Amino acid sequence: MKCSGKTLAFKILLYAGLILQASIWIAPVFTLLATSLKSKKDFYSGLGLFNMPSHIAWENYMAVLKKGNMLSYMKNDAIICLLKVPLGIFLEAMAAFSLTRLRLRHRTGIFIFFIIGMMLPMQVALVPISIVYKKLNLFNTYFGLFYVYVAFGLSFGIMVLRGFFISIPRELDEAAYIDGCSKMQVFTKIILPVSKPAIATLVISDFLATWNEYMLASIIITKDEMKTIPTGILNFVGQYSTDYGGLCAGVLISLLPVLTVYLVFQKYFVAGMAGAIKQ
Q1: How do the domains of the chain map onto residue ranges?
Q2: Which one, of 154, 186, 156, lies nearest residue 171 by Cα?
Q3: pLDDT tens digits for 4-58?
Q4: How far is it, in rounded angstroms, from Cα 185 to Cα 168?
Q5: 154-184 pLDDT, tens per residue?
Q6: Which of 70, 145, 225, 256 has its CA 20 to 30 A from that of 20?
Q7: 75-90 b/e with 16+ CB inside 10 Å = b?
């Protein structure tokens, strides 16, 4: 009976802790939703942060989509993500395949060289990027963002895929070579299909990072019609006033593609990250 009593108490404390933690995570989302449904009048009426308004201001969402150019910003973000995510992962996979399957000299040193890229802050490269982009006329172009996003994402992608590729038995490679496969065929027909969990992990993380990136986008993109969501949504923040309802509505709308990608690939996420730490 003592053991069952301790077990029950432990379960009660565990679920209480989980409920508390879930409440902490849900609270900002609820306030975001509540604020997006408030009119400007509600903000000056003393309505609490966690209180829902008596009148639902759906016009905030309509204003974001029509007057706030939200669809244009989402289109720009989607184009960049569709360029960067698949091509970036393919480059990272080829580099990881070379480091784990090919007979390269100083493979560990090359891998460390890539990992050092994760240690360098992005701010260090802002001035050189600006100088080069000005000479090449890459400001206000999709490829201007594409190049820097791929470059800054290589290190993390190679680390994840290298860890997963190491866990793949080499007997699969040897069987493929016996059947007459080339190295490229082993890469495309054996390694990549087996690595779906790691690739799905990178799809989620790359899409999230690219979709929400602000600093580089704010420097490279200055034309309003080329802006992405993180920079374009700041149009709701003025010098003397801020449209909090429109701002929060825009944030919620921008979350929908990210949630969709996560829900599609989330079943592979844990397996992919677990493979990344294997040596």
Answers
A1: 2-43, 59-276
A2: 186
A3: 677 888 899 999 999 999 999 899 889 999 999 998 888 777 777 778 888 888 9
A4: 16
A5: 999 999 999 999 989 999 999 999 999 999 9
A6: 256
A7: ebbeebbebbbeebbe
pLDDT surpassing 80 at residue 271: no
